[in-house]
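From the shared-data thread, chain only:
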Amino acid sequence: MWKKKFLIVFLILFFPSVAYLLLHTGKNNFRKLQVYGPKEVGSNGDTLYHTIPPFRFTDQSGHTVTEKDLDGKVYVASFFFANCPDICPKMNNQVRRAADVYKDNKDVAFVSFTVNPEHDTVPVLAEYAAKLNATKLPWSFLTGNKDSIYKLAGEGYLVYAAKGKGSFQFFHSQDLILIDKDKRIRGIYDGLEKKEVDTLIDEIAVLLFEYEQKK
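Structure, as tokens:
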């Protein structure tokens, strides 16, 4: 009886991701995710891909977070503001769902940048994280200089809607951006669509497996 129950639990929890991997498998290797953004050929003939540049911001606990804190991690980046009434709550509920799947995996992180840092101070972000039940998840909410955030959004994460610098001009982006351990963009997903976030959850596993193959 216990074997039957174990099989049912296994199929429910693991079959979707395993099936996703197998369906995208080549003869000897799993499918690799594409790399987004501009690329060029280096002096030695290697392809040089767009990567996320250095940054330095402050999280909901008052700690400084830089790109180096994400070294060796696959992570998901997004942009929001705390008093956003519609898009952000829906999107962040989906992010929380994905973060909960990987809450025990030290190789996965989630990073959300506020686009309204004048309002979204450290205490505001701490309260926001608490309301989302995100305090125990590998999820950082970052604030800092607005120009630096918008520049990082547009030039780093290639969120082309990163415009507007007036008090009430905030860009809305519902994109969730998957970044690999080499700081390259490997996927872009609509954070309001459950199916796309399901794909994100699966493709994080694909990306982790890609790195396992390199060991």
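Strands lie at 39-41, 47-49, 56-58, 64-66, 74-80, 108-114, 139-142, 175-179, 185-190.
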